[in-house]
């Protein structure tokens, strides 16, 4: 079956241009359902996994929205569709085709066409400082009262006369962790408080009630709050991020925070006031920027750039290179990336692992202890080696810590093609040697 330009359910003609087209064949119980084609903006939301036995910490859900119409996307019978798309993140414009279940509004995707490859990500190495914009709603729902009052909330949101000494505000988090590349001020980040009823219908026609905490509920609460803001005359197009602070005690909401992965025309963050601290909100807002989880608690990174990107073209056999790599808190250029493309050729969509080598000390933003969210001792004054394929929106490929090294220790990758040795550190400088057995040798020193 070819996915052709057409006018069908919720769909306008495909935009002319070059698209990524994926075709698969399905058989089984869904075949009797009517096949539909649907075009819209992709919504990607991360939920905690309710069943830890499945072996994943999170579950990512996909939905396609076109105006007032929303269809869920299911890839379970065709997982290669997701595998062959480099990035499936919120904000992309895509078209899909496949069997459609009208009861659950679910399309079992057989074919997928990417019309807008990049989505609406905000953070794409901008020139100059970017202004973060958001509207935050502190919610009471169906008699469940929020623990935050507006004055206290605002005192920890932006810097001002009511800010408490020694307590980092959301403005501090953005300015510090972005190395001054982003601002978060009161003018562009508004806060409202409102009460919601016990049940309703979201903008996509899905019923919600306060006794549940699924997709219809979290988006129903968001749509209710957005309608409230529009009723006040607020132009929501100016404020891309919509942050909802939920009251504690809601049934089924046993998580600290949820967020959209990526940001299109808008993106969402939900915080459970019974669990989520302000650094949790900042963490979830990072997902709106397309950031993925680290697999190591307390070892998440900010918005850094690499000082060098090495691969088979620059890592020649027998060659040596030396780099001065600043401490991650001292500069926004603070890691070396090694792309393992010297192995046998692979399909264009396959993962190409990248090693990221950095050095951290418990200073500045990393200072403090585990009670104050400082860098954990087992990661301080060490060289960290991570592996990541650079893609977004896919939980299985989140960054993974491979090793932390103290002086004298050596790391070797599982293919025995690359070894990394932490030689020494002095005055914030970590000297590291990297040696590749298969055509790759380099000497790197880091600060």
Based on the model shown, name its key terms:
447 residues, mainly beta, 5-stranded mixed β-barrel, 5-stranded mixed β-sheet, 5 helices, 10% helix, globular, disordered N terminus
User: Which shape, going by the Cα principal axes?
Assistant: globular
Helix percentage: 10-25%
Portion in strands: 25-35%
Element-by-element helix/strand order:
EEEEHEEEEEHHEEEEHEEEHEEEEEEEEE
SS elements, strand count = 25
Rg = 24 Å
Q: How many alpha or pi helices? A: 5
Instruction: Describe the strand arrangement of the main beta sheet, using strand numbers.
Output: 2-3-4-6-5
Short summary:
This protein has five helices and 25 strands. It is mostly beta strands and 447 residues long. Strand 24 and strand 25 form a beta hairpin.
What does this structure look like?
This protein is mostly beta strands. The chain has helices spanning 80-83, 150-155, 170-177, 215-231, 278-288; strands at 20-23, 35-48, 58-66, 69-74, 93-101, 106-108, 111-116, 130-131, 134-141, 182-183, 189-196, 199-201, 207-209, 241-246, 257-260, 267-272, 305-310, 333-339, 354-360, 382-388, 400-405, 410-412, 419-426, 429-436, 440-446. The strands form 5 sheets. The protein has a 5-stranded mixed β-barrel with strand order 2-3-4-6-5. The chain is globular, with a radius of gyration of 24 Å. It starts with 19 loop residues before the first strand and ends with a strand.
């Amino acid at each position: 079956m070819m996915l052709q330009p057409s006018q069908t359910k919720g769909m306008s003609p495909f935009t002319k241009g070059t698209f990524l087209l994926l075709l698969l064949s399905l058989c089984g119980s869904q075949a009797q359902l009517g096949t539909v084609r649907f075009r819209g903006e992709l919504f990607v939301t991360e939920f905690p996994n309710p069943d830890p036995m499945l072996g994943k910490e999170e579950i990512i859900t996909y939905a396609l929205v076109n105006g007032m119409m929303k269809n869920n996307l299911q890839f379970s019978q065709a997982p290669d569709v997701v595998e062959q798309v480099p990035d499936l993140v919120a904000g992309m414009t895509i078209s899909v085709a496949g069997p459609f279940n009208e009861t659950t509004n679910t399309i079992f995707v057989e074919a997928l066409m990417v019309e807008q490859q990049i989505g609406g990500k905000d953070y794409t190495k901008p020139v100059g400082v970017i202004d973060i914009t958001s509207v935050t709603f502190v919610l009471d729902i169906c008699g469940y009262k929020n623990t935050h009052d507006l004055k206290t909330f605002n005192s920890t949101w932006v810097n001002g006369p009511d800010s408490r000494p020694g307590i980092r505000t959301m403005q501090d988090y953005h300015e510090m962790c972005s190395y001054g590349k982003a601002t978060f001020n009161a003018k562009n980040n508004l806060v409202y408080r409102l009460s919601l009823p016990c049940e309703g219908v979201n903008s996509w026609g899905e019923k919600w009630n306060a006794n549940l905490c699924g997709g219809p509920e979290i988006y129903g609460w968001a749509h209710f709050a957005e309608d409230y803001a529009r009723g006040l005359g607020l132009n929501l197009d100016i404020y891309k991020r919509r942050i909802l602070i939920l009251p504690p005690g809601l049934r089924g909401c046993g998580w600290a925070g949820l967020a959209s992965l990526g940001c299109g025309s808008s993106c969402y963050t939900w915080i459970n006031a019974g669990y989520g601290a302000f650094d949790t909100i900042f963490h979830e807002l990072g997902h709106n920027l397309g950031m993925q989880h680290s697999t190591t608690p307390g070892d998440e990174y900010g918005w850094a750039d690499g000082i060098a990107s090495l691969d088979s073209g620059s890592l020649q056999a027998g060659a040596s290179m030396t780099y001065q790599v600043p401490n991650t808190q001292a500069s926004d250029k603070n890691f070396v990336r090694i792309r393992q493309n010297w192995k046998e050729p692979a399909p264009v969509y396959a993962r190409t692992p990248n090693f990221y080598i950095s050095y951290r000390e418990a200073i500045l933003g990393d200072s403090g202890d585990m009670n104050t969210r400082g860098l954990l001792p087992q990661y301080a004054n060490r060289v960290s080696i991570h592996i990541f394929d650079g893609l977004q929106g896919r939980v299985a490929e989140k960054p993974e810590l491979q090793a932390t090294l103290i002086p004298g220790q050596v790391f070797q990758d599982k293919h025995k093609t690359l070894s990394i040795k932490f030689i020494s550190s002095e005055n914030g400088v970590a000297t590291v040697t990297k040696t590749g057995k298969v055509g790759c040798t380099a000497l790197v020193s880091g600060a």
